[in-house]
Protein: non-specific serine/threonine protein kinase
Amino acid sequence: MGNFCVCMGGSAKCASASAPFESKVNPRSSTSNSNSNSKASRRGSSGPEKPQVAEVQAAAAGEEVAEVPASLKSFSMADLRTATKNFGSTSYLGEGGFGCVYKGWIDEATLAPARPGATNAMMVAIKKLKKESFQGHREWLTEVTYLGDLHHDNLVKLVGYCSDSDSNKLLVYEYMPRGSLENHLFRRGSQPPLPWSTRVAVAVDVARGIAFLHSRDVIFRDLKSSNVLLGPDHRAKLSDFGLARAGPTGGKSHVSTRVVGTRGYAAPEYVATGHLSAKSDVYGFGVVLLELMTGRRALDESRGLASELLVDWAMPMLQGERRKVIRVMDTRLGGQYPKRQAQDMAALALRCLQNDPKSRPSMADDVLPSLQLLLQPTTAAKSSSSSSSLTTTSSRSPATTMTTPVQRGHRRHHR
Ligand SMILES: Nc1ncnc2c1ncn2[C@@H]1O[C@H](COP(=O)(O)OP(=O)(O)OP(=O)(O)O)[C@@H](O)[C@H]1O
Ligand SMILES: [Mg+2]
Structure:
């Protein structure tokens, strides 16, 4: 991001890896339907009951007093200092646009700070808002209201929050031990590359999470590999709801809003017009599919103007009669994937990346079932590879073959 922050209250100093497209959400942005951002209008009749709420005193001058679900634990700053060893460098996990993230320990039952490794203690991830970020306060509020309310296996669980009179704003999440998908795909370190079968399973999990949000008329708006976190078994969950917002109501196709999001992932019509719909998330999902296939970042400025955007680089090789899917595949896979599955995933990514949002598939009715087909093992499928990592094959690809691949960002932007 090029940003540099010194996190408060501790010793960790961190430089962010991503750049803002624009700092994120504006809950009061104009919409094509009135009052569409209220909690009530966010949910259709099938939505969850209005939760029990507690008031959180927004500390920044001029901010409203917000309601947050009472099911969330309200932590004091002292609690979180204790839980993270005073936000010290040994607790540091990473940094994003919101601020730094630390691991901490709390008691499973009482949620009081606990000693690392103590009986009944559980690890949590604690995100600490940069104090200077006014926009971050809005994101914090959005995140608390959405994540406090929406619960699903593929959404990261929010345990609680801290908001005090010193303008401290923090979020306490379940700890996701394998970190972000971004780190797995792009960090060149000692860790082995994600095998193909895991990439397919991650895509299914992400699709499930997004389909769930869309069923609740919520648009995620910041889908990217750094916002996909992996659990111990590589089960994936969506995190970062600071940009989430209510979808259109009353038969409208979109809401009109200020353009926020991450360059490389944001849908073209949204960037051009501010028209936001569930199909904007589908576009972002298409980009994540490309990242999973190619091992290349959505935006990589080091590759030069012509190919800095993954979509621009990959699309010409994926469409047309002479599709060259093999040429875009991640070389770190070492060819260990069924060629037919790669082709199916490429075809799905292409549909998600259609310029016209109406031509993009629906997450629940089309994307998810298509991906789930890739997870189904078929006895007919025979792999030419001896790779143990290859545990799934497409039910649509009985003549599965393995290929030898030839080849194989995150950055917020704004208008
Ligand atoms: N719940 C969590 N469990 C474990 N690690 C986490 C958790 N949440 C965040 N992290 C770690 O902290 C890093 C920073 O996360 P954060 O969401 O703040 O930033 P980001 O997603 O990289 O950027 P952005 O602010 O643009 O979303 C992640 O890459 C991840 O390694
Ligand atoms: Mg994130």
